[in-house]
Amino acid sequence: MRFMIKQQGGVNADVFIEFLKRLIAGAKHEIFLIVDRGAAYIAKKTRTFGVTLKGKLRLFYLPPYSPDRTPGELAWKHLKTDTAGRMAVISKDDFKRKVRSSMRQLQNHPGKIISFFQKPSLKYAA
Q1: Dihedral angle at the C-alpha atoms of 101, 21, 18, 20, nearest 10 degrees?
Q2: How many alpha carbons lie under 13 Å from residue 19 in its C-beta half-sphere?
Q3: Residue 59 three-state SS
């Protein structure tokens, strides 16, 4: 599992492309990434970048309005309801540290990530 914490603002095509560059860095095999149809993911700039990767990465787009089929939603749920969302926060920097820590803990527990894909609506991606 990989993640990137953005300092400010939303995710646009440039931010997503930066994430993709980090994701494929050092990859030994082709990466299959399932994404929803957010503007950053379907942007022409993103698609053009994908073509330049020559098979290192394949994006798979979910049908519109299908949050129950988005694997990342369970990671967000875990973050919001089970970890960082339940912690007292005293500042913006404190919040970033807690989010980063929670995501790193999740990275180090592949069994938890695998369990997300046991949900019936996500078995297609397992």
Answers
A1: -80
A2: 17
A3: strand
- 24: helix, strand or coil: helix
Q: Do 78 and 106 contact (CB within 8 A), yes or no?
A: yes
- Structure tokens of 3? 């993640």
Report pLDDT digits (tens) over 65-102.
777 777 777 777 877 777 777 777 888 888 888 888 88
pTM: 0.67
Token code pair at residue 7: 């300092």
Tens digits of per-residue pLDDT, 25-40?
Answer: 888 899 998 888 889 9
The candidate with the shortest Cα–Cα distance to 34, out of 11, 66, 9, 82, is 66
Contacts 24+ apart (CB under 8 A), 93-100: 96/5, 99/5, 100/5
Q: Are 56 and 29 within 8 A, CB to CB?
A: no
User: How many Cβ atoms sit within 10 Å of the Cβ of residue 32?
Assistant: 10
